[in-house]
UniProtKB/TrEMBL annotation, chain A:
Gene Ontology BP, a term: amino acid transport
Residue intervals passing through the bilayer: 20-40, 61-83, 89-108, 154-175, 190-211
A single Gene Ontology CC term: ATP-binding cassette (ABC) transporter complex
Mode of membrane association: Multi-pass membrane protein
Organism: Neobacillus novalis
PROSITE patterns: ABC_TM1
Localization in the cell: Cell membrane
InterPro entries: AA_ABC_transptr_permease_3TM, ArtM/GltK/GlnP/TcyL/YhdX-like, MetI-like, MetI-like_sf
Start and end residues of each ABC transmembrane type-1 domain: 19-208
Keywords annotated in UniProt: Amino-acid transport, Cell membrane, Membrane, Transmembrane, Transmembrane helix, Transport
Protein name as annotated: Amino acid ABC transporter permease
Record-level Gene Ontology MF annotations: transmembrane transporter activity
Lineage top rank: taxon: Bacteria
Membership in a protein family: Belongs to the binding-protein-dependent transport system permease family. HisMQ subfamily.
UniProtKB/TrEMBL annotation, chain B:
Membrane topology value: Peripheral membrane protein
One Pfam family hit: ABC_tran
PANTHER family: AMINO ACID IMPORT ATP-BINDING PROTEIN (PTHR43166), GLUTAMATE_ASPARTATE IMPORT ATP-BINDING PROTEIN GLTL (PTHR43166:SF9)
GO cellular component terms, A-Z: plasma membrane
Chief localisation class: membrane
InterPro entries named in the record: AAA+_ATPase, ABC_ATPase_HisP-typ, ABC_transporter-like_ATP-bd, ABC_transporter-like_CS, MetN_ABC_transporter-like, P-loop_NTPase
Annotated compartments: Cell membrane
PROSITE patterns linked to this entry: ABC_TRANSPORTER_1 (PS00211), ABC_TRANSPORTER_2 (PS50893)
A GO molecular function held by the record: ATP hydrolysis activity
Organism: Neobacillus novalis
Matches recorded under CDD domains: ABC_HisP_GlnQ
Every ABC transporter domain range: 2-236
Name assigned to this protein: Amino acid ABC transporter ATP-binding protein
Length: 218, 240
């Protein structure tokens, strides 16, 4: 088997463009998904069952249906319903954010509920309001415990962003498929994409373990 | 100072406190003893509303806790609490544990809170641990920090919920020593404990609780040497 390095070199600028978009989609998904996830997690923890219900069903929907279905639905149905036109990048960001928000919200909830009840009691007994106790005592501790599962979720998100190729958002996988289509070769485009995805996910996990070490308290 | 009037507390159908009436005078040290499940911790936790009160009233310096208009957060700043499990904030250094509430609740400046915190640490003999994290401390040291943290809010009343029960035996003394000093300084204290020696030495009054009721109350000497109720006698015979 001959391996055509020259084809990879030829496609390198496109892979670079694609990688940048993949990074962009992932960062947007992570940021929006996390903020939205915190909000939904808080919503689901509301004492009043009826108020928590919409948040519960949000999570049910986005966790219980395939991401591929979600991204196609958003791209071909939801976005056109609002904008009268399709927009692949917008649809990809929307789908990634909404999907990861569901997972982040559960990570967030688990993190908060894993903190011993005594922490809240101690904070309240010192006269702090519920909000102050959350902000200064519970959340900082919960956040530390949330880093490993959040890292998992962000890695899944980077990988899921490859499904944006289906709606022709010109990210990494899109150019991989284009290269295969043009030269009828499989090894070169997909191995290249594999290596780039691996570099992205490994960089993210080492970044997160760095953060984890910095937050360590002996 | 503290006035508890026909206090009742139920968890679902489980009636934990049946009818509690207690008055604690300023500077008094009241020790609560009794078998586990007798409701003594629940009673203590009702005094600063860590448990919701099912029925009855608790007055702290004349303010009714059960009144919906009472600012419970403000009231809690007057009532310090020390827990069996210490409940120090593990993500903060010892000095930060102590500074947090004065800064956030009382809006004291960081410098003032630090000076005050170091003073309190000196008082409990742990000034050299100011920059340590709680996880690196022994149980006895943690509990002394917890006491200093509660004192930083300058409360008028201190509640102790089995403060030495989670400690290794050789560490009980150092915590009791701090509490004795506090009592000597005139702090009003309600202490749930199994330390009968402490009750005898420091307590002005001992309450014996069983089955959600105060079965007997008296001075430590009278209650320990000359118990009137059968249940008190049975309990004391098991632990003394």
């Amino acid at each position: 088997m001959d391996f055509r390095w020259d084809l990879i070199v030829e496609y390198a600028p496109l892979f670079l463009k694609g990688t940048l978009l993949t990074i962009g989609l992932s960062i947007a998904g992570i940021l929006i998904g996390t903020v939205l996830g915190l909000f939904i997690g808080l919503g689901k923890m509301m004492r009043k069952k009826l108020w928590a219900l919409p948040f519960k069903w949000y999570i049910n929907f986005f966790r219980g249906t395939p991401f591929m279905v979600q991204i196609l639905l958003i791209h071909f149905a939801v976005v056109p319903a609002f904008l009268d036109t399709t927009n692949a990048i917008l649809a990809a960001i929307l789908a990634l954010s909404l999907n990861s928000a569901a997972y982040v919200s559960e990570i967030f909830r688990a993190g908060i509920q894993s903190i011993n009840r005594g922490q809240m009691e101690a904070a309240r007994s010192l006269g702090m309001t519920h909000g102050q106790a959350m902000k200064y005592v519970i959340l900082p501790q919960a956040f530390k415990r949330m880093i490993p599962p959040l890292g998992n979720e962000f890695i899944v998100l980077i990988k899921d962003s490859s499904l944006a190729a289906l709606i022709a958002a010109p990210e990494l996988m899109y150019w991989g498929r284009a290269m295969q289509g043009q030269y009828m070769r499989a090894w070169e485009p997909y191995l290249t994409a594999t290596v780039i995805y691996l570099v992205l996910t490994l960089s993210l996990s080492s970044l997160l373990s760095l953060l984890e070490r910095r937050l360590a308290t002996e | 100072m503290i006035e508890v009037k026909s206090l009742k507390k139920s968890f679902g159908t489980n009636e934990v406190l049946k009818e509690i009436n207690v008055t604690v005078k300023p500077q008094e040290v009241v020790v609560v003893i009794g078998p586990s499940g007798s409701g003594k911790s629940t009673f203590l936790r009702c005094i600063n509303m860590l448990e919701t009160i099912t029925d009855g009233h608790v007055f702290i310096e004349g303010t009714d806790l059960t009144d919906k208009k009472t600012d419970i957060n403000k009231l809690r700043t007057e009532v310090g609490m020390v827990f069996q499990q210490f409940n120090l904030f593990p993500h903060k250094k010892v000095i930060e544990n102590i500074m947090l509430a004065p800064m956030k609740v009382r809006k004291v400046s960081a410098e003032k809170a630090r000076v005050k915190g170091l003073g309190l640490l000196r008082k409990v003999g742990l000034v050299d641990k100011a920059e340590a994290y709680p996880d690196s401390l022994s149980g006895g040291q943690k509990q002394r920090v917890a006491i200093a943290r509660a004192l930083a809010m300058e409360p008028n009343i201190m509640l102790f919920d089995e403060p030495t029960s989670a400690l290794d035996p050789e560490m009980v003394g150092e915590v009791l020593e701090v509490m004795k000093q506090l009592a000597k300084d005139g702090m009003t204290m309600v202490v749930v404990t199994h330390e009968m020696g402490f009750a005898k030495e420091v307590g002005d009054r001992v309450l014996f609780m069983d089955g959600g009721l105060i079965v007997e109350e008296n001075t430590p000497k009278e209650l320990f040497d000359n118990p009137q109720e059968e249940r008190t006698k049975a309990f004391l015979s098991k632990i003394l």
